[in-house]
Design a protein that fits this description.
mainly alpha, about 0% strand, flat
Length: about 260
């Protein structure tokens, strides 16, 4: 079916929906939606514009960096095969120990997956600074998720042993810090530093929450969805305090530092 026929069919369905809604409420749904507050970016319209742009111009090129706006899949394949041939023919795996070979092989597998993903994964909604960058971010997220799934089926001790392969300093349990041992905001019993509880709670996790919220808003572009995820995250911390003592925090740490200052 041609694009013009599809558009006419879609317009006919929308007009039918508008007439049915008008018979029920006397108001077109488009007018109703137009009066509602906009809390999310119109990705559907953006995607349609991108599809139309790609249909007219298959390769988006602003004329300044033509080389970086082309796929180069053949060049990428040639370089990847050349590296694999070099490793298979000229390198001797017996010249290194098993731990070194294990780390190199695992890193090579991850890099090969990222290379295939960057060149073959479909583009997402973001095009700045380059769609390939966001394809790389997506593939890194997939690798991280696969690593978490693998660790889910391992014991804690064995997981820590695996981490020592990458860095001997890892695999050691960190000291747990309690954030809920003293929840007094203004400690009158300590006149030298009455705000010491607030200052002690203001650690690295506070800017981490702030910048994490900022990046989340850039990705989701939805006011209500971002706040819903933030509230559910705090609820998750409350429910997991019996398993992770580090999640125990004072009430003002949850409400003031996290919910008000870092995630609004």
């Amino acid at each position: 079916m041609a694009d013009s026929d599809m558009s006419e069919l879609q317009e006919g369905r929308e007009s039918t929906l508008d007439s049915d809604w008008s018979n029920i409420s006397g108001t077109s749904p488009r007018k109703v939606l137009a009066k509602l507050p906009v809390t999310v970016h119109d990705w559907d319209k953006e995607w349609q514009n991108q599809k139309q742009l790609r249909r007219l111009h298959p390769v988006y090129d602003d004329g300044t960096m033509t080389f970086f706006w082309r796929a180069h899949t053949v060049l990428t394949l040639v370089v990847f095969v050349a590296i694999m041939v070099y490793v298979a023919i000229f390198e001797d795996p017996y010249s290194h120990d098993n731990d070194y070979n294990f780390k190199r092989g695992l890193i090579a597998c991850v890099l090969a997956f990222l290379l295939v993903g960057v060149t073959q994964v479909p583009d997402g909604p973001f095009c700045r600074p380059h769609p390939a960058f966001w394809r790389l971010v997506l593939c890194l997220g997939i690798v991280y998720e696969l690593a978490l799934i693998f660790l889910l089926f391992q014991t804690v001790d064995y997981s820590r042993t695996l981490l020592k392969v990458f860095d001997p300093k890892l695999g050691v349990p960190l000291p747990e810090r309690s954030y809920a041992n003293n929840c007094v905001i203004y400690d009158a019993a300590n006149p030298a530093d009455p705000w010491h509880n607030v200052i002690e709670k203001f650690d690295l996790f506070v800017p981490t929450h702030f910048f994490g919220w900022w990046i989340k808003t850039l990705m989701l572009r939805d006011y209500w969805l971002c706040h819903t995820l933030s509230i559910l995250f705090e609820v998750m911390e409350y429910t997991l305090e019996h398993q992770v003592p580090n999640f125990a925090e004072c009430w003002w740490d949850h409400l003031l530092f996290i919910m008000t200052f870092c995630k609004t």
